[in-house]
Each structure stands twice: as C-alpha cells, then as structure tokens.
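Quick start: read one record
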Amino acid sequence: MSDSWKNIKNIVGKVCPILGNAIVPGVGGVAGSMIAKMLGCNATPEDIEEAIKKDPEIALKLKELETKHEQFLITSAHENDKLYVGDVQDARSREIELAKATGELNWPMYLLGGLIVIGFFATIGCLFSIELIAFNKELIIYTVGGLQSAFLTIVAYFYGSSKGSSDKNKLIEKTKSILKKED
C-alpha cells in the first residue's frame, strides 16, 4: 500500500520544494497540518489531495504559505533529516556494540540478509526465463514486491543512504546562507 503523505509530499514539492520537503511521509507532520489549515480541510492526505484538485489557484497559495513560513520549514526539514539519519545510525551502532560485547558478528542477521539478496536475484532471473501462468501472476507480483522491499532495506542498512541526506543538507545550508544575505 502506498503512503498517501508521500504522494502529497511529491505533489506539493513540484510547486514548492521547501514546503514539500517538510512534509513527513507517514504522518504529514506540521507542514501537512499547515497545508490543511490553509486549504480549510481536515489534515488527512485524502482531504488535502481533494482540496488541491478543487482549487485552481493552489500553486499561488502554496507559494505564499512557503514564503511566509520558509525559515520554519527549512529548520523542520533539517530536523526530519537528522531524525532519519539518527535512526539509521542507531541500528548500525547496535550492531557494532553487539559485536564488541560478544566478540562475534550477528551471523543470523547476515545469513538472512544474504538469503534475501540471493532470493531476490534468483526470483528476478526466473521471471526472465519462464513464462508466467495467468492464475499465478498476482501472487508472483506480490512476492517480487515483498522481496524487492526487503532487498532495498538490506541495501540501505548495510550501505546507507547518506548521499541523499548529504545532498539535502547542502541544499538546506545553501538556502539558509541565501536567506541570511537577503536579511
């Protein structure tokens, strides 16, 4: 199931990148509430999306909201990024501390991760080499989707996503310096 707040984040982000970046996928956060208040609707992604579709001047209103609260939105987005990076670092720190305490790696975690990666690529390989039977198609699609999700989680855990976070932090710092020059 897709995250409706992520959809709102993408819609708003096309017009107002700072405002869109401050929307927290999964919960909406303060930015989601601000948009709902401006639109005069409930702070649910479905209501916000409906209100956006009905309002022909939405881009202008969103730009005004972004401009009015720009500094707060930049700070909020920066804090959201720090929380995300902290969460990833905590998971890796736990693994390091466990290895220090026991003197060995958590081999079941590595084994399970390896099996998921091998299973993902084996499943993709099979999909290219066999013809799908009509009544099994949906089951196979769901299985591949689940394996893909698990595969991406493993890659993110072991190799991190700090590049995107680093790029976003640079953009935020650049925006802050521009705002300071304008003051």
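The radius of gyration is 21 Å.
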